[in-house]
Amino acid sequence: MPAPSRHDRLSADGPVLDGIPEHGRVPRYYAVKVELLAVIAELGEGAALPTERELCERFEVSRATVRQAVGELVLEGKLSRRQGSGTYVAGPKLVQPLALVSYTEGLRRQGIRPGRNVITLERRVAGRALAADLQVTSDAEVFHLERVLLADEERVGLESTYLLVDRFPRLLEVFDPEQSLYACLSERLGVVFDGAEERVETVLATPREALLIGTNPALPMLLMHRISWGPDGVPFERVRSLYRGDRLSFTTRLGRND
């Protein structure tokens, strides 16, 4: 009786099982993808992946098959491509809590240095959609702060925050745009965040967003919309945060409502 092939062995258990279609045949690229996961684990973070030619010879498959397997691992954030250099094993994704904590606090808890590059800081009229979210008239003025989010100097997201001018008239006097906005609001302006509503969806970045974040426009992004309010229940902030899906994940803790 012949020994089981590599693909037979893999399809018996583990990740390949999840990729088996109804007809029972494991797609060749998917079997290679699982083999690559083992290679990635052996190489370790930051190591260069073998060349396409080497992988084709190792797995006895075509370049197209290798490219499809590698491409999916790039989309999933397990590999990263560097233009003119090659493909490398990516580090673990950053984890942000879905809670009333700032981006800064979330990263510092993981021992990661947060940073921001200011793109826009302006005073503008709210307009109809924003006014509806903040429960004000459309001609009310808001501060608009747009910043590229950094994690240990790596660009990982783009955040746009809108705050009511009437609620925070001294904001520009006390706020350093490269520091934590939430820390400024709570420590300098006495703001209490009592609650927020957040919605998460997957999108593709616009050409401008992809350029600012430094990512491929074809990579999936995580888009978060948040409206925050204080103890009086009146909303005072709207935030639109766009994160790289290959570099960030989110976590929350759920409990049973009795």
TrEMBL record:
Keywords: DNA-binding, Transcription, Transcription regulation. Residues 24-92 form the HTH gntR-type domain. Gene3D superfamilies: Chorismate lyase-like (3.40.1410.10), Winged helix-like DNA-binding domain superfamily/Winged helix DNA-binding domain (1.10.10.10). It holds the Pfam family UTRA. GO terms for molecular function: DNA binding; DNA-binding transcription factor activity. GO terms for biological process: negative regulation of DNA-templated transcription. PROSITE patterns: HTH_GNTR (PS50949). The keyword Glycoprotein does not apply. PANTHER family: MANNOSYL-D-GLYCERATE TRANSPORT/METABOLISM SYSTEM REPRESSOR MNGR-RELATED (PTHR44846), MANNOSYL-D-GLYCERATE TRANSPORT_METABOLISM SYSTEM REPRESSOR MNGR-RELATED (PTHR44846:SF1). This is GntR family transcriptional regulator. It comes from Amycolatopsis vancoresmycina DSM 44592.
